[in-house]
Amino acid sequence: MRLQRTIKKETSFRGIGLHTGKHAAVKLKPAPRDTGIIFYRIDKGAIIKANISSVIDTAFATTIGFEGVKIRTVEHLLAAAAGLGIDNMLIEVDGPEIPILDGSSADLVAIILDAGIAKQGKKISFIKITKPVIYEDNHSRIVALPYDGMRISYYISFNHHLLGHQELTMDITEENFVKEIAPARTFGFLRDVEMLQANGLAKGGSLDNAVVVGDDGILNASGLRYNDEFVRHKIMDTVGDLSLIGFPIQGHVMLEKAGHTANVKFLKKLVQSADCYNFPSEVDHLNHRALNYS
Question: How many whole angstroms separate alpha carbon 87 and alpha carbon 76?
Fold first, then answer.
């Protein structure tokens, strides 16, 4: 185990939301130990804990909230926090969506590192996988196995000559996350843009904040940051989504054709599989409740 962490000082950023197209300002603030990651919609006066019980939508992004109040596209910011080992932080936002910035977590990582990381005087508890946990549906498969550390293996397959199949296994350390995962941008297909916009999504999308794949290739003049940027971004999304369980996971998580919906359902399956993981008994009751989503 390691000591809990927060940020040393308040920092902020602003930008446009990928799906709503609305601008928002975000403040990141230090939080006491055992707080977890807390979102605060300051324009609504609403507090939303980053937890699987708060997830209300997983269509093309992870959305948390409750009736009448929501915050879209939280996964990139959650990934940046989890990738850097930030356990406690208050996130204030004055709009319905976290700004997409360049479509990756790279800028978010830089913002957090600029604020500084502070160790707190209490150890963080880990959820340690001890037996296989398997989630399957008609499209996706996620398996978690025992492993000394955090490892993600991801396999994607798209019916497109440029993407096709990509797979990557990565140990999720702070260094690996910053260098190999955080810069990978969100992506989409030009053929899907009209459908997304017709359903009220991708209103803020552009070549500045997403990799757009056309029939003949990548439309972004800058090209790709990695040859396998697509699967790396999927790993980044997974890091963010898995953090919604409230504690770091120790295990090897293998994902095939998964997404936000499968990720959240897998977490619920994991919570129900109490015989498949260890969780320190000395954790206080309040923190234990974070594992109970129902």
Answer: 15
Tell me which of 96-100, 157-161, 210-214 is least confident: 157-161
What is the DSSP track for 122-154? EEPP-EEE-S-EEEE-SS-EEEEE--SSEEEEE
What was the pLDDT predicted at 273?
95
Alpha carbon of 76 to those of 99, 133, 206, 274: distances in Å? Answer: 10, 25, 17, 28
Helix (H) or strand (E) holding 66: strand 63-66
What are the catalytic residues? 260
Q: Are 240 and 75 in contact (CB under 8 A)?
A: yes
CA dihedral for 42, 45, 49, 55, sign (positive or negative): negative
Query: Strand ranges (DSSP E) for 162-265?
Result: 165-171, 187-189, 211-214, 217-218, 249-256
Mean pLDDT over all residues of the chain?
Answer: 93
Measured from the Cβ of residue 27, the count of other Cβ atoms closer than 10 Å reads: 16
CA distance 248 to 238: 13
Specify whether the backbone of 49 is left (phi greater than 0), alpha (psi in -120 to 50) or beta: beta
Q: Report the range of poorest mean pLDDT among 7-16, 22-31, 199-208, 221-230.
A: 199-208
Q: Does residue 293 carry a pLDDT above 50?
A: no
Residue type at position 54: S
Q: Which residue has the tokens 């830089």?
A: 110
Q: In whole angstroms, give the CA distance from residue 111 to residue 80.
A: 10
CA diameter of the chain: 57
Q: What is the pLDDT of residues 138-158, one digit of tens each?
A: 999 999 999 999 999 999 998
